[in-house]
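Incident review: delayed structure delivery

Summary: a single-chain prediction request sat in the queue longer than the usual turnaround. Root cause was a stuck worker, restarted by the on-call engineer. No data loss occurred. The affected request and its eventual output are reproduced below so the record is complete for anyone auditing the incident later.

Affected input:
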Amino acid sequence: MKKSLIILLVTFISFSCKKDFIDLQPISDMNAGNFYQTEKDMNQAVMSPYASLRNLYNQSFIYVGEIRSDNTTFSWVPGNSKDMTSIDNFKDVLLSDNSFVLNIWNNSYNTILRCNIVLDKIDAVPFSDKKLQSQYKAEAKFLRALTYFWLVRSFGDIPKVDRQLSVKDAYGLGRAPTQEIYDFIVEDLKFAEANLPAAHIAADKGRVTVGGAKGLLSKVYMTMAGYPLKKGASHYALAEAKALEVIGMGQYSLVSDYKALFDVSKKNSTESLFEVQYKKGGTGTGSPWNNDFAPRFSNREVVLVGDKGGFNSPTPDMSKAYENLDPRKALSMSDSYVTVPGNKTITEKYVRKYYDVSFSFSDNDNNWIELRLADIHLLYAEALVRQNKQFDIALSYLNKIRQRARNSTGGGSAILPDYLPFSSASAFLLAIEKERRVELAFENHRWFDLVRTERAKTVMSAEQLEQNGFPLGSWNDNMLLFPIPLQVIQSNPEKIKQNLGY
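Output delivered after worker restart:
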């Protein structure tokens, strides 16, 4: 067991690239020491962490972004799976041997390892175009920063692996302070921002651009401003500035119809800053969510092809969070379905935001939108309000989201009127929180919004009462982090200690 965890830090699987950016398949275990010798080789190396992201977004991040929050739950679990229910229900003990938590940790550090291989090897490779060499470095650093952002928000203090490690080095690695990890993330994103292009050619659509780096940097600064670092005004100002830079670039715009955001024929839209790329067709690069989120015992009335998972089901409170006739609800979720055959209404909530017809089993064409302009608009508005300035501008950006929603499929002029000026900053912030919830529902933002704004205790206590029929009981801020996986601690008990409360 000990060796298997260390090996994750010192080995890798190489990925190759076909003509399309998305067509990435593992080919073999190769020796990283002598494989990467040309620009083409390094391009293959950069593709590897992009491909690794699919393992994380397929399901892992949904556990920590959505199911941990008041947005979603499980409508069906196999047997008595405490690994699943303990993430969802705070009354259940979340154990350090939870398989899903271990999966998040291992897949994240695997992705980081792939980024480090690029960064360790690239300076020794001759490039005719030094700008391209810097771009490849910037892509690896963005992907590393994104992965560390997920890790530090989920686990707090974590090992900082910034290079390929020997076995000896790996055993000597302990948990770095949360502040140090955030500083590292910011450093990587600043490099990415300075060296990424504004856009890519069509064949490379989906590779990160400078807009993605700026957008993620804004989100990181917002998180640093809140819990647990509580940097406050200085970092709200930094978040505001980066969000405004994204908005001022001019190349991003809200798509006119909310429905189009999740249309598989319109991926990587003008609203998208960064998407994890998927492609169906039996190649192993398809996405599973339409099948995973469908009611377990539904038939063709929900999905036409493949499995149904009963996974990530909207909670009653999520359903009620939408205002009357908000078109985003019908485009994002359903409260029931009608059986075929039988014509019987089954009251069971499910996510429908990622609809597609699977190639087979759970093989769909949906990308995962990690960053989009609506998120940036709402972060910008929130940053202004938290600095007690320019409430009129903040209100205009909040209302841009409302305006797009009511003009979307299923909307109308009488639906979702603009917000009027708020009587207080606290009321304004609650409106932004609500709008973020319904606008970004099922996109893995909710839990971390609740944590950084210190609203998790209030919101989750109410949700757990509704879900379980009795109060949550005593709250402990230890619940805001996940346990360090038991296998990781066992691999290096002198250096890796458990989070408080586990």
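Verification: Residues 1-19, 21-31 have pLDDT under 50 and may be disordered.
Action items: add queue-age alerting; document worker restart procedure.
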